[in-house]
Amino acid sequence: MDSKYWIKLQHSLLDDPRVGRLSDTNWRHYIELLLFAGIENKDGRLPAVFDMAWRLRVDSIEFTECVTQLETVGLLERNDDDEWQVIGFERTQAPSEYTLRKQSAYQMYLQSEHWKAIRNMALDRASYKCQKCGNQSDLQVHHLSYDNLGHETYDDVMVLCRDCHQEEHGYD
């Protein structure tokens, strides 16, 4: 399962009467359901209600009633596979146009001759080993900062294995 490490909560939740009129308990459970949808990372689909209730350490019958109430107000629905799904989750979690443009430009930069030279120098300097743990497989070159992006020197980067790189970004 390729879960998300965070989800976006839209400001519009504050003004959505479907959310604003929820009881405190149902409001909290709705936020928890958003987190579950992020963990599942399947376009808003949720795990089985019993499993979520167990993980939250709440009564499964009361939690089932909450889920049903959230369906009634239009925040959840059952999909074609009879799974619970957060309505609009995929749309609200999609990257913004700005993010997509930034990612595209960065991906193009990673194909540039300058980046390839910096990357190769960094790998050579690190003797093709992770500079944190010494691992020699699945090596990646990590930017220490993006201040000099496009003009970096090998002092602006470090070689990390995939696990250490993910840890560096807080994805462990």
Written account of the structure:
This protein is mostly helical and 172 residues long. It folds into two domains: 11-93, Winged helix-like DNA-binding domain superfamily/Winged helix DNA-binding domain (Arc Repressor Mutant, subunit A, Orthogonal Bundle), CATH 1.10.10.10; 104-168, His-Me finger endonucleases (His-Me finger endonuclease fold). It is built from eight helices and four strands, in the order ααααββαααββα. It has helices spanning 17-20, 24-40, 49-56, 60-72, 89-93, 97-109, 113-125, 162-168; strands at residues 76-78, 84-86, 139-143, 157-161. Strands 1-2 form a two-stranded antiparallel sheet. A hairpin with a 5-residue loop joins strand 1 and strand 2. Helix 3 packs across helix 4. The two termini are 14 Å apart. The relative contact order is 0.09.
Properties at a glance:
2 domains; Arc Repressor Mutant, subunit A; His-Me finger endonuclease fold; mainly alpha; single chain; elongated; two-stranded antiparallel sheet; 4 strands
* Structural class designation: mainly alpha
Helix % is 40-55%
Q: Write down the CATH class of the largest domain.
A: Mainly Alpha
What is the level-2 CATH architecture name of the largest domain?
Orthogonal Bundle
Count all strands and give the number. 4
The low-confidence runs, each spanning 5 or more residues with pLDDT under 50, are none
* Adjacency order of strands in the biggest sheet: 1-2
